[in-house]
Amino acid sequence: MKPPVVREKRDGGFTLVELMISLAIYSLLSVAMLTMFLTGLQGWESGGDRMEAQQNARVAVDRVVKDLRRAEEVWLKGSSEVRFSYPGDDKTYSFLVKNSELVLEDYINNQYNSQQQIARGITGLHFELEPCGKTTVELRAGSGQHQVELRSSVLPRNVGVDN
């Protein structure tokens, strides 16, 4: 009869099964962490896009209100363009959207002279002129879920002022 085979016990290693289980757990944790990171990154970028749209809209509305407040005469050329003039200035000016940009055009004797870009990413512009002279501006910027809409009203201070 043969003596029983005695295996030596090793203290320093892992079995193949233990390594495979550890690798599977590590993989699951890595995928979960990567998913959380990518979701956070998407939220960060989305917030940045919305913030940029809001900033563009705010700059545009502030400029329109500031210029119309100083105007002597205001009239609409359609619902998406406003024209105005300043006291003592022989030019007339116009706010409108061209190629997703709010632009300020100036005219001399009703002839186009030049334009200035005010804000980018503007997707809509609407004006209303009330009988009392108050002008309301509605402006949209951005697109999709990042779209922002601002509305403001202004009463020109120089209407009826003689030069």
Reconstruct the topology from this structure:
Layout (H helix, E strand, L loop, with lengths): L15 H54 L3 E4 L5 E4 L5 E8 L2 E8 L2 E10 L1 E8 L5 E7 L6 E7 L9
What does it look like?
- The structure is a single chain.
- The protein has 163 residues and is an alpha+beta fold.
- It has one domain.
- The chain has one helix spanning 16-69, and strands spanning 73-76, 82-85, 91-98, 101-108, 111-120, 122-129, 135-141, 148-154.
- A five-stranded antiparallel β-sheet has the order 1-2-3-4-5.
| Global geometry | rod-shaped
Strands side by side in the biggest sheet = 1-2-3-4-5
Average the pLDDT over all residues and give the rounded result.
Answer: 88
Number of strands: 8
Poorly predicted sequence stretches spanning 5 or more consecutive residues = none
Q: What is the straight-line distance between the termini?
A: 128 Å
SSE sequence, one letter per element: HEEEEEEEE
Can you tell me the number of structural domains? 1
Q: How much of the residues is beta strand, in percent?
A: 25-35%
What can be said about the biggest beta sheet?
5 strands, antiparallel
List keywords for this structure.
about 160 residues, alpha+beta, five-stranded antiparallel sheet, three-stranded antiparallel sheet, 1 helix, 8 strands, about 35% helix, rod-shaped
